[in-house]
Every structure is written in C-alpha cells, then in structure tokens.
C-alpha cells in the first residue's frame, strides 16, 4: 500500500487558536463566554439601517481594491479630527478584511527572509506567524507582570543591523496597558538613523479609561513617517463579525502594502463600507466609547473585588487580566479549561501570548458583555 504523503507545515507549532478553543468549549459547556474578545450586544440600530439601505439599493458588487472612496475619506476626516494628522484618502488609506489582514500585509510589505522583527510579549497571536511566514526572525522582549512596563533599554539591546521592524500594540491585548507620550519618544529615539519600520496594532484606540489618552504612533512625526497604523471598526462599533479593518500609512509604504493586499483579499464587503462611511460622520458613537466600556470594566471589577483574584484595573481595551495565585497553583491553561467546565465561566490563559508559554498565573476576561453576564460571572468567580 502506498504511504500517504505528509504535507510539511510552514507553521508546525501552530494549532487551533486559543480563542477558537475557549469559545467552542464555552459553547459546549454552556458557560459564560468571557474568553474571546467580542461583544455580546449588537451594533447601533442606525448602523444596521444604513447597511440595509445599501444592500437594498444594489451596492453589492466588488468594492475598489483600496476601499470605497467615501469610506476612506471618512476615515481620513476622523483621523484628522481626533489626532490632527492628515492622510490622503486616495494614496494613504487602505480598507482591509479585518485588522489581522492589515497586520499581515504590513509585515509582508517590509520583512524579507532573515530580517529580525522585535515582538514585545505577551503578544497577540497573529504577529509571530506573520513574521515566520515571511521568513523573518521574531526577537522577543518580555514584559513582566504585574505592570508590564516596557524597558526600552532592553529593547535597545535587541536591535541589530538585521532589525527591520518593531511590532507595537496599544491599547494592549491581553494586558490592557497603554503607551505614554514618553514611550513614543523612547521608541523614536531608538529607531532614529536606522531603517526600522513600526507596525502598530491600534484596534482599541477609542477604548481607554481613567483619563488616559491613546497616543497613536501617527502623532509622533518621526514615527508617523515609517509606521503602518492598523485599526478596526469591529472593536469600535461592536461589529467584529464584519471583519473590516484598515491601514493608515505614508504613500510609499501604502504602495507596497497594497501590492500585497490585492492578492490576499483584493476587496472588502461593499455595503458595509458605504454604511460605515456615513456612520463615521457621527462622532458621538466613538467619542463616548471609552466611557461606555469603563462602566463595564468597573462593574466587572467591583464583582471581582469580593473574590480571591488580584488585579490592576485595565487602562484600555475591553480585557481585564487577573491573578489567581491566591486560588490555585495550576497551569493557567488547565485552570481556564477547568473553570469553563466546572463553574461555567470561560477565560483565556495569558501564557498563550508568550513564546515560551510563561505562566504568571493570569487569566484574561473580556468585559464587552451585557451587564447581567458580568454580574453573574463575577458572582461565580467570587465564590472560588
């Protein structure tokens, strides 16, 4: 009998993502799903009406490769309003099928075999596979609990003549930290006079708390000229299932970015783009987002205060990490699975965001959920 050919893998270490694993387990077990980062509530009825309007009126064919012009123009106008930075919607704004695609295209645009890319870990799980698939070499700088502050001297020590890019994430998933102005200055000082690009994941840009400000890489002139800013309307408008992201980058970077993008998804769903072009002109729907989610963070954290979990309140994103050292010595993955099965609350173990699966006894909870879910999950967790 002829032996079946085994297909060698380009990502031999990659299994099913933790988000799929934990969400499926939550569904199978009938658990409250505080694992995967999606809201349990719907988008604005106004936005739904706009989508319906454009679907019914025939806006259902391919969008332009770079995105519907009206949508790119609205994004450029919003960016100018919020950050005081002007991007040309024709040559510097590209619509993608989710921020993950934007990140992949940005990595692919600049990383060649043998190039080194600095990754600050814990890191979102799509970064390293994108680097590996392009023949790059991820170079890790580990951020330590409980504050996860960036040691820029440690970053400096990892920069070599092979360094091609640095992956940035603010507000941070999973740990909920945000960059300060001093962080931007430190990063700019590190890369001056070097051919290093910044790939910045800023999907939670409008979800910051306690008077914090989102310091986008684009707001620093030295960084802006070499940064791919990757964003998402899914996180902003509670529409993660639409998978609509974007990339803002100077013209020269965008040209190479689009060369890649056109052969990955070519274009993104059309009627949603037209609807979002209109909806972006209503700034109250993103300007009030931080306040909306801070109330949910506080509601969940107030419930956790009665538990044996310990935590520092998240400064951004819609995630809260919490230490379970006072509860169990289990490996965080094992505990996350056990809690999903036994007490019906699903979370994500933070070790999965480290190359070496560093276990600081931390779980990540998503608080983008209805209040009754947060109350019930908090009540259950407080009984541990």
Automatic annotation (TrEMBL):
Record GO cellular component, one term: cytoplasm
Cofactor: pyridoxal 5'-phosphate
Keywords (A to Z) from UniProt: Aminotransferase, Pyridoxal phosphate, Transferase
GO molecular function: kynurenine-oxoglutarate transaminase activity; pyridoxal phosphate binding
Domain of life where this protein originates: Bacteria
UniProt feature coiled coil, ranges: none
Residue ranges of domain Aminotransferase class I/classII large in the record: 33-377
A UniProt-annotated Pfam family: Aminotran_1_2
Similarity comment text for this entry: Belongs to the class-I pyridoxal-phosphate-dependent aminotransferase family.
NCBIfam families, per the entry: PRK09082.1, PRK12414.1
Protein name per UniProt: Methionine aminotransferase
Organism: Cyclobacterium lianum
Lineage: Bacteria, Pseudomonadati, Bacteroidota, Cytophagia, Cytophagales
